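SEQUENCE-TO-STRUCTURE ENTRY
===========================
What this section holds: a protein sequence and its matching fold, both as plain text.
Tokens: labelled as protein backbone structure tokens, with as many entries as the chain has residues.
Question of interest: how does this chain fold, as expressed in backbone structure tokens?
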Amino acid sequence: MATDILMPALSPTMTEGKLARWLKAEGDTVSAGDVIAEIETDKATMEVEAVDEGILGRILIQEGAEGILVNTPIAVLVEEGEAVPEASSTQTTAAPKAEAAPAEAKPASATAKAPGEDKGERIFVSPLAKRMARERGIALGALTGSGPNGRILKRDVEKGPNAPKTAPKTAPAATPVTTSEETVRRVPNSTMRKVIARRLTESKTQVPHFYVSVDIELDALLELRSKLNATAQENSFKISVNDMMIKAVALALKKVPGVNVQFTDAETLHFENVDISMAVSIPDGLITPIIRDADRKSLREISVEAKDLAKRARAGKLKPEEFQGGTFSISNMGMFGVREFAAIINPPQAGILAIASGEKRAVVRGSEIAVATVMTATLSVDHRAVDGALGAEWLNALRDIVQNPYTLVV
């Protein structure tokens, strides 16, 4: 009996995805566990495994199709010798928002035909110039293009016949392009970029953020890091400042557990476990793999795990459980020389720590001025779940741990 292969939900926030690539063709034999396709989700490009065996009888959604709703049939699996149905057995296939463009299709901006002109003549015109000409009632054939290959541009329409002698009284409609159209490179937004835009907009508009910053001296932590790395045999491990900050954040959350929470309309969730989501930049987006139980792991364990997660995140090889969840996030831009920044909360979490660069600064100790390596850390908190005094208490706890870093190894 024919079986539908459905668009899977590969993350909690996924409602639709893009079918990036088929790894099996119609007529191929499929076994349970075979990787049959790659799906671009709101988090990453992920492999999809078959759950049944049979023959891939018909592909219903072609490569490159976007906006495919979760649970939409994308292919039909049949048994050997079974007739291949023309469509999904459930007849519920949802058409994707945008099918992949045929290879032979020409860009929409390349050519246009003006009404009443020679049907065999091709006129090269930009989309903006075409719209302006239509609005002003100017035939494209009456214009001389000044762009590459005689392409008609905005300026050609403005200089052409019937062009207004004075500027119109009403302001033109807003357009995102403010430079010459020849200098604009248009890149379609990926599924990940669209979801990042939606989720961050929701976070900033629906979550009441407040921010608390503190300066933390790093010299003792940097000295400890050097000593620990010096003990590594044949470079078996190398602890980074970020590894140490993950552990310090986890210990601070255990010391001030009121920040390790999530707000819901009915209740506030207080977590016993401390799972740290670390922001990792990947092509065209951001993903937050998780160091679970970070308070109970050694710096060496955190270092090895963080490097492995970051590497596989950039390769798009993370498993869903490795980036879904987390009770608190950190975002480190210290490697870019950033002095200070505030991060956007990663819902449903209630807090995220922005870690900036350590730099030499003058500090006052008693009645004397000294030089120390100082980092500014900024806590972004959901005010629905955490009040200002509690956020400040947590930051002070973090500062004490970092400035007395031997608590990280005991």
